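4.2 Preliminary Data

To establish feasibility before requesting continued support, the project team ran the inverse folding procedure on a target of 136 residues. The structure was first converted into the token representation described in Section 3, and no sequence information of any kind was made available to the design step. The complete token record follows.
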């Protein structure tokens, strides 16, 4: 996804705050009574799912935004998917995928990114509860 697509999508989506419940058919009922449909995170998740196989958890999406990780740079998503496929081929269930200067902890069995770290957060960290590491 190009950053221009990301920004265009972000500007088109209204963000609903408060407690929301998703109804069948994708309708969102906000506890605050705003009546807004959809959220930025859900729309971004759907757009990412179109472009690649791996999904991002809500926590991972928050980390991507907080840490300004550019998923469109250097074919990051393609490389991430390739890393997950390699881990799945070896029978991994939880893996650390290093893509360029970013790290992604991925549930291979659920095909979902659990969390992300940028390059300046990698040093001095210990990654636990993983059974493999893939460098792509």
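Position-by-position output of the design step:
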């Amino acid at each position: 996804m190009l950053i221009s697509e990301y920004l265009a999508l972000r500007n088109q989506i209204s963000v609903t705050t408060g407690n929301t419940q998703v109804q069948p058919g994708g309708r969102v009922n906000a506890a605050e009574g705003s009546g807004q449909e959809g959220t930025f995170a859900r729309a971004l998740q759907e757009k990412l799912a179109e472009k690649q196989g791996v999904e991002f958890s809500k926590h991972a999406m928050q980390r991507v935004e907080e840490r300004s990780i550019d998923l469109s740079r250097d074919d990051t998503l393609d490389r991430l998917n390739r890393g997950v496929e390699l881990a799945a081929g070896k029978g991994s269930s939880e893996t650390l995928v290093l893509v360029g200067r970013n790290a992604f902890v991925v549930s291979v069995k659920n095909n979902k990114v659990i969390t992300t770290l940028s390059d300046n957060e990698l040093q001095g960290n210990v990654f636990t509860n993983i059974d493999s590491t893939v460098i792509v």
